[in-house]
Amino acid sequence: MAKTIQAIRGMNDCLPEISGTWQKVESVLRQVVANYGYQEIRTPIVESTDLFKRSIGEVTDIVEKEMYTFDDRNGDSLTLRPEGTASCVRAGNEHGLLYNQQQRLWYMGPMFRHERPQKGRYRQFHQFGVETYGIDGPDIDLEVILLSARFWKAFGIEKHVTLQINTLGSNEARAAYRDTLVEFLKARADKLDEDSLRRLETNPLRVLDSKNPDVQAAIADAPSLIDHLDEESKTHFETLCARLTEMGIAYEVNPRLVRGLDYYNRTVFEWVTDSLGAQGTICAGGRYDGLVEQLGGKATPAVGFAMGIERLVLLLTTLTDEGQDDSFADVYVTAMGDDAQSYAVEVAEHLRNQLPDTRIMMHCGGGNFKKQLKRADKTGARLALLLGSDEMQSRKVGVKPLRDGQEQVTVSFESLSNTVLKLLSEK
Ligand code: ATP
Ligand code: MG
Q1: Which residue among 319, 341, 364 closes a domain?
Q2: In ligand 1, which atom is closest to the CA atom of 211?
Q3: 165 and 121 both lie in a single domain
Q4: Ligand 1 in contact with 281 (CB < 6 A)?
Q5: Can you give the pLDDT at residue 362?
Q6: Contact 224, 208 (CB under 8 A)
Q7: What's the CA-to-centroid distance between 15 and ligand 1, angstroms?
Q8: Per residue in 167-210, pLDDT tens?
């Protein structure tokens, strides 16, 4: 036999056993954003490498070591998108969606990062995100957080996620704080790891975000950005916190939360869970007022977040019985004997016309009655239709309930759809 070819490491197939759960998750997400008046945007999966370098930042993990970058046949440097925000701003600028306007957008799709694959961390993964433009007050920060909170309610997992928020202040306030922080870190340089020492020179705020517990211990009493805020950012943050409380959204202020992408300012937030081990952040976002201008547009305030769909699906299958229903048919149509075949197909097609929301599968491949019923059972169908030459002659249909104690009945072709609906609606 020829050697088999395997998928690329860290890139997953979504197999039928779980694709139903993905579809349900996606449909709930779509429904929630529509409920807030957000519109979908779809952008290409490949962009110019410069787009991500200029937006995410040259000295971030993503740009330094995680991007899938290659030269195309013209010698242009292209990159598989590692996230959605940069593309969204690029498209918004390119098509005039952002200039003096308000926009509320959402997207969903695959992202690519060359990370070490592990549970909840993959090289191709999927994000669902929202991006809003043109609104500078905390009312929109509140809205995107309320919207994300509604996801957890819709999935019944609100008790398993917590909201962490922080503010990064204005660019000027952050620059001033940066000097204070660098001084503090330099005094403890012997306790920092290699990554943090490099960051100290290039992007010192990211040291706060270090995942190394030794580094975290060494910087436990680092000066806090919250104490160095400009007045406007402070008011913005306080208003947001007060409104969250009013709306009954519990949160924790985490002064260490800085996010791994350079474009954030003011509000940043993450929804975290302790039910997924190390990969505990399922949704993360914040304000990025400078990015539109930085990518060539007119200065435009912006807030958004992105959620990792794999982590959400993992959380749902860990915590709830979502994904337990693995049936893929409601009605299974069997046929005995060659002459009943075309009648059976006619019955199946008729029923699909009448009941477009019902899953009706036609047995193919012949075999005896026992074999056909065995197949029916595998699909999880609740009803089998039995069609032989007698039924064909009399234009009737045998209806056999497969799960519960209901009786088998024979009904006319005309009354079939009513009978099926009635039997399927009985618990
Ligand atoms: P992390 O700290 O987990 O590396 P991040 O800060 O890199 O996350 P963002 O770039 O803000 O994450 O992406 C938003 C969300 O996308 C994350 O909270 C997570 O749910 C998901 N995500 C990010 N990277 C991956 C990945 N490699 N595999 C699966 N999901 C991911
Ligand atoms: Mg990351």
Answers
A1: 319
A2: 2
A3: yes
A4: yes
A5: 97
A6: no
A7: 22
A8: 999 988 888 888 999 999 999 999 999 989 988 888 888 888 88
The set of residues, in sequence order, having a beta carbon less than 8 Å from that of 136 and lying 6+ positions away, is: 289, 301
Which pLDDT value is given to residue 57? 87
Question: Which pLDDT does position 258 carry in this prediction?
Answer: 84
Query: How many structural domains are present in the chain?
Result: 2
Same domain, 287 and 415: no
Are both 271 and 402 inside the same structural domain?
A: no
Q: What is the DSSP string of 5-66?
A: --PPTTB----HHHHHHHHHHHHHHHHHHHHTT-EE----SEEEHHHHHHHH-TTSHIIIII
* Residue identifier of the C-alpha nearest atom 22 of ligand 1: 308
pTM for the complete prediction?
Answer: 0.91
Among the atoms of ligand 1, which is closest to the Cα of residue 83?
10
Q: Are residues 345 and 307 in the same domain?
A: no
What separation in Å is there between the alpha carbon of 308 and the centre of ligand 1?
Answer: 6
Residue with tokens 């009312």: 139
Pocket test for ligand 1, best of 281, 282, 310 (most atoms within 8 A of CB): 281
Helix (H) or strand (E) holding 314: helix 309-319
In a domain, 211, yes or no: no
Average pLDDT score over the chain? 94
- Indicate if 160 and 282 belong to the same structural domain: yes
Q: Are residues 260 and 387 in the same domain?
A: no
291 and 355 housed in the same domain: no
The 10s digit of each residue's pLDDT in 54-80 is 998 887 889 989 999 999 999 999 999
Gap between the Cα atoms of 311 and 313, Å rounded = 5
Q: Give the end of a domain, one of 264, 287, 319.
A: 319
Q: Which two tokens stand for residue 164?
A: 């962490």
In this predicted structure, what is the pLDDT of residue 134?
Answer: 98
Which residues in the chain show pLDDT less than 70?
A: 260-261, 322-324, 427
Residue 130, pLDDT score: 98
Q: Quote the domain boundaries for residue 386.
A: 331-425
